[in-house]
Specification:
Blueprint: H1 9-12, H2 16-23, H3 25-42, H4 62-72, H5 80-92, H6 107-113, H7 124-145, H8 148-158, E1 165-166, E2 171-172, H9 208-211, H10 219-225, H11 229-241
Antiparallel strand pairs: 1-2
Amino acid sequence: FTYYTDLSLWDTFRDLHSLYILIAPNEQRDMLVSLVKMSEQGGALPRWPSGYGYTGSMLGSPADMVIAESYLKGIRDFDVETAYQSMKKTALNPSPSGSAYSGRRGITSYLKYSYCAADEMDEAVSKTMEYAWADDAISRLADALGYDEDAKLFKEHSLYYKNVWNLETQYFQPKNSDGKFVEKFKPLQLTYTDWDEEYTDDYVEGSALQWRYAIPFDAHGLISLFKSKEYFVSELNDFFALSDPGLNTWTPGSYYWHGNEPDIYSPYLSTMQDVRI
């Protein structure tokens, strides 16, 4: 097989690998074998592998989505059992002290509170949402492999994203370990410095508004969180209508921007049966 290294998984798991499954299944299979080899050599699946090894860049467990989607769509010629056990280990345990792989940062908090506590880490909202996404992938793969109890457990974990949804503000919002939402909240505030010279460290590469729709693995569940279907449609339409159409913007702004990861799936929400009024 061809050993692939620079996979930039936090970016590519969202679209590129889905395309490879369709148009380049042999190359995709080699990438899966490469990921398994990395887990055997380094002790865990990588998040953002580079030519020289783990980088620890970005967040989440994007390899979980790549592996699960590939297997479920018919690519089977790789050691899925080793891959699955590595996925499960990272989802339930912190990385050993001194490990080159940082694992799921804040996983202890995530498992203790059923969300990542904002007073214990940065990027807490984004981590909660992406860990839930990865848990959904593990649940689906576990079901396909016949691990019924694991499938049930990780399905429960995949719903943890709902625990940072604030019914009052209608946003995914940082929550502290005491169960209270952080009071200072600006849904348009970016993780990049904005014109008020302030920024939020509760999200990754985007505003709370951009992360508001970042639950593609459970779109029906996401829509059900909003106070009404009509409200969801109105808010989603505004999300696109108020985006900056300029090509020379140096930051993505607070509204829809297709060049960034968190909101890349948002347009497809308009195709859901739930939002047809």
